[in-house]
Amino acid sequence: MLYDYICNECDHRIIDYYQSIHDDAITLCPKCGQHSLQRCITGGLGSFMKDVKTIGQLADKNYSNLGHYKRSEIEQKHKENIKQQQSPLSQFGKASKTQINKMTQEQKHKYIITGDT
Q1: Which residues are bridge partners to 12 per DSSP?
Q2: Distance of alpha carbon 102 from alpha carbon 112, whole angstroms
Q3: Using one digit for the tens of pLDDT, what is the confidence trace for 2-36?
Q4: What global pTM score does this model have?
Q5: Which residues fall within 8 angstroms of residue 4, CB to CB, at 6 or more apart?
Q6: What residue spans of 26-104 are helical by DSSP H?
Q7: What residue spans define the domains of the chain?
């Protein structure tokens, strides 16, 4: 698992420290030399914690508490937003690369202007 460590003394952060879940947490801060590091789990949907300590953990907890239909609605809206962000020119011209290579110069010119093959 990836962990983030935060020093309680000097606020030094260690980000994405790879460690087994069974390993003991590191406590020695490399910056101030104090044994005051606190481990925070950074995870996606697979993280499991009862007490929430970071914004990411709160977001994961809230997302997992949503019902199946609500999560699917959110995912659908996200997919629609991605489609809307595509270039307006992408709606024209659906020809493949090989089809374009087979076109004559006149056909290519027409394809560029109208999008028709």
Answers
A1: none
A2: 14
A3: 788 889 889 888 888 888 878 888 889 999 999 99
A4: 0.37
A5: 13, 14, 15, 16, 17, 39, 40, 42
A6: 55-65, 68-84, 97-102
A7: 2-66
